[in-house]
Each structure stands twice: as structure tokens, then as C-alpha cells.
């Protein structure tokens, strides 16, 4: 079932015009400002794969920079499905890997347990806070290594599914998910 949902939402993204994607990305960034997540220090942000029409995280990056937060970016290790996290500094070099993912080329490594808030990429999510990504488990592995208090914020261009079947014990649920029109709160 997750594979059907992946195909559905990849196809829906493909239909978005560049203008609509930019507009929705800005709406999501503005909605994030309403969340109670801004008093922390370390924020993990993914950089968008523009070819896959992912939400443009540049407006969120500007918000974090404007608030003088520590921004953490990750580099994917496809051998282990692990994310290695680095502090974004003025000297950080960003380069796309062979899968089109923009990544830092080294720098000051930040341990997962030090990160306070994680903005989580996804294809879709449900009303219980479960998400479907690309299926490699990078974020579930990464989030399971974060502190138990880490705040997990999904970013979605589309509204929630009612229920995602086939959720595994290793699937880490979100605390919030923000779409262009809705803030979902799963912290109960």
C-alpha cells in the first residue's frame, strides 16, 4: 500500500507548476511561524530536490537564518542509509550528489541527539502522524537516534490521508505536519 501512495503523490507533485510549488512552499513557511518550536537552538532542515518538485525549503532556511538559529544539514550515506549531520556555516559548500540531493561537503559534525527540531520530508502522511517517504528509511533511522524530546515537523504539499496501512514499529511518527492550508498537531 505504501508503494501505491508513493506513486500517487509523486504523480501529484509532477502536476504542480513551478509557480504553484513556490506559492505553496511560502504558505508552508508562513504557517510554520505559528508552531511553538522557535525557542530552540539546533534545527535540522533538508534541502529540496528541485527535480522531484519537493517543497522549496529556502524560505524556511531564511526564517532560521533571520532568527540566528543553528541550521543542520545532512549528507546521505547510501551504504548504511544513515544521515551524517553538519552545521551550516558561511564556509559550507553545498553540492548535489548523484541522486540530485543537495548536501554539505563536510564541516562541523552535529550529533543527532543535539538536534532540537527536525523538518521532515515526506510524500504523504496520515491523521495519526505516520508518513511515507521514498522508502529507504533514512529519516526513521536518523530520528530514532535523536533525543526522545526532538520535535518532528513534517512538510507536505498535500493534505493528510485518513490512514496509512502497513506502518512498521520502526516508523517514527511526526509531532506536527504543515501543509499550505493546515497545521496538524499529533502531540497528544
TrEMBL record:
One of its GO terms (molecular function) is metal ion binding. GO terms for biological process: folic acid-containing compound biosynthetic process; tetrahydrofolate interconversion. Gene3D superfamilies: NagB/RpiA/CoA transferase-like. It comes from the Bacteria. Its EC number is 6.3.3.2. Substrate binds at residues 49, 54. InterPro entries: FTHF_cligase (IPR002698), FTHF_cligase-like_sf (IPR024185), NagB/RpiA_transferase-like (IPR037171). Keywords: ATP-binding, Ligase, Magnesium, Metal-binding, Nucleotide-binding. It catalyses: (6S)-5-formyl-5,6,7,8-tetrahydrofolate + ATP = (6R)-5,10-methenyltetrahydrofolate + ADP + phosphate. It is an enzyme of class 6 (ligase). Its cofactor is Mg(2+). ATP binds at residues 2-6, 131-139. Belongs to the 5-formyltetrahydrofolate cyclo-ligase family. This is 5-formyltetrahydrofolate cyclo-ligase.
Amino acid at each position: 500500500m505504501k508503494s501505491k501512495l508513493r506513486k500517487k503523490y509523486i504523480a501529484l507533485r509532477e502536476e504542480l507548476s513551478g509557480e504553484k510549488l513556490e506559492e505553496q512552499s511560502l504558505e508552508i513557511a508562513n504557517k510554520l511561524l505559528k508552531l511553538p518550536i522557535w525557542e530552540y537552538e539546533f534545527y535540522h532542515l533538508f534541502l529540496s530536490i528541485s527535480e522531484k518538485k519537493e517543497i522549496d525549503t529556502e524560505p524556511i532556511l531564511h526564517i532560521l537564518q533571520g532568527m540566528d538559529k543553528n541550521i543542520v544539514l545532512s549528507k546521505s550515506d547510501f551504504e548504511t542509509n544513515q544521515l551524517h549531520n553538519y552545521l551550516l556555516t558561511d564556509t559550507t559548500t553545498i553540492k548535489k550528489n548523484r541522486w540530485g540531493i543537495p548536501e554539505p561537503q563536510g564541516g562541523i559534525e552535529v550529533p543527532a541527539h543535539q538536534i532540537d527540531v527536525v523538518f521532515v520530508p515526506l510524500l504523504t502522511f496520515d491523521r495519526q502522524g505516520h508518513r511515507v517517504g521514498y522508502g529507504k528509511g533514512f529519516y526513521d533511522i536518523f530520528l530514532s537516534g535523536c533525543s526522545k524530546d526532538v520535535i518532528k515537523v513534517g512538510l507536505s504539499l498535500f493534505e493528510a490521508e485518513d490512514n496509512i496501512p502497513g506502518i512498521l514499529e520502526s516508523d517514527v511518527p511526526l509531532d506536527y505536519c504543515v501543509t499550505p492550508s493546515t497545521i496538524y498537531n499529533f502531540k497528544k
